[in-house]
Amino acid sequence: MLPAPTARLRFREMAEADLPDIATLDLGGSRGPAGWIDWNVRNYERYGFGLWVIETHAGTFVGDCGLTMQEVEGEWFVEAGWHVRSHLRRQGHASEAAAAVRTAAEAAGIAHLIAIIRPDNIASQRVARNIGLELERTTHKNGGPALVFAADL
């Protein structure tokens, strides 16, 4: 269920060969780049989606963006997530990729989409709003406060 290419970006599944590029992303958490790739490969197999590599049409690695299953207060939801290399931020790549992911989620029949974002991550909150998600609630996730942005599709 790869999202359709955008004006500047294309999507593909992560692979072990992406380890050096994935290592350049600020992923948070404790999985590490190899664990991150393994987790996404398992997600592709289990759900038919995960975080996909986003790259320019010329093949330059930009980051990752896609869908994952996330638990919030005992319920499971499909989350849109994105990470862009630091030197490529503030150029609209995350919003462009996330909009394509939202469209793919809607086409796949996903009824409710969320994004879990730290309160201090203003840039990701802007991306969430750019793709039509609004603040739904606050929660505690992965050891700290989190904002849950959401929309019915």
CATH fold label: Aminopeptidase
Please describe the biggest sheet, giving its number of strands, its sense, and whether it closes into a barrel. 7 strands, mixed
Distance between the termini: 17 Å
Overall structural class, as computed from helix and strand content, comes to alpha+beta
Bin the strand percentage: 35-45%
How many structural domains in the coordinates? 1
Classified by CATH, the class is Alpha Beta
- Number of distinct beta strands: 7
Can you tell me the CATH superfamily?
Answer: Gcn5-related N-acetyltransferase (GNAT)
Shape label: globular
Total helices: the number is 4
Indicate the mean pLDDT. Answer: 96
Q: Return the CATH architecture.
A: 3-Layer(aba) Sandwich
- The spatial strand order of the largest sheet comes to 1-2-3-4-5-7-6
Q: Could you tell me the radius of gyration in angstroms?
A: 14 Å
Residue runs with pLDDT of under 50 for 5 or more positions? none
Helix content: 25-40%
Written as H for each helix and E for each strand, in order along the chain, the element string is: EHHEEEHEHEE
What's the quick description here?
The protein is α+β, with helices and mostly antiparallel strands and 153 residues long.
